[in-house]
Amino acid sequence: MITYTITRDSGEVVGTYAITPVGVAKQGNYQVFYLPGELIIVEVSHPCVGVTYQGHDYDAVRIGSQCWFTEDLRVPVGDHHYYKDDPAYFEKFGYLYSWFTAVGVNEGDIDTLPPTLTADDGTPYVQGICPAGWAVPSMADIAELDHFVGSASLLKDPSTDYWLSGFEGATDGTGFNARGCGWYNAAQGRYEDLKTGYHFWAADAQPGAITIYSACTAYYCDTIILTDPNQKNDRKSVRCIRKVEL
User: Fold this and answer.
1) In whole angstroms, what is the distance from residue 39 CA to residue 138 CA?
2) DSSP type of residue 136
3) Intra-chain end-to-end CA distance of the chain, in Å
4) Residue 142 in contact with residue 134, Cβ under 8 Å?
5) Can you give the pTM of this predicted structure?
6) Which is more confident, 199 or 217?
7) Residue 164 gets which letter from DSSP?
8) How far apart are CA 71 and CA 51, in angstroms?
9) Residues 213-235: pLDDT tens digits?
10) Residue 164 pLDDT
11) From the centroid of its chain, how far is CA 40?
């Protein structure tokens, strides 16, 4: 434990807190992050709380200025499957969805862009199959997450129940809890990367494109990588990010 005094730019002392110098600690209306060689204090203007959606309770965690679900969606809608259609994998990982389902576009409709709403900061976002006020993340959202965290090990669930030994995350991570749920490769007609890769959709798209970006936290890299091309009928996870305070 170390003691850290938080002050505003004006010099006003907010308070003195004892924190553990790893991962994330919540101090009242502040979030305290310790990354290698850097202590970051973020003032939180709105609480980052989860939501009950379609009968399931989702927790949330603030990472930098973003508020994320701590698990993937489990909503039985559209093109949804679990890994190799084995119910045991659903209990661990939730559903894998096509991009069409994730963003709310009819299956196979490559010409239609997903509908957008306006976030609290004035930027457009795609709600897709996420609950009201939440969104399927954009590539910009994912890039911000990656830049802030700096290491994929801080995003992964630390348990070998969800990753092969040696591929799991840091014990004191961010609370994002990415699990190695793999994905469905439509071009090859097979499921891949169980317990070695976590793949989740980005909402960005161009009309007429049959491929799209997704994000991957895999065993062979220490950052989030944006993978392209991906078939829109591949199946991947959906992780929701808060866009509107309700």
Assistant:
1) 27
2) B
3) 36
4) no
5) 0.81
6) 199
7) -
8) 12
9) 777 787 767 778 776 678 899 99
10) 92
11) 20
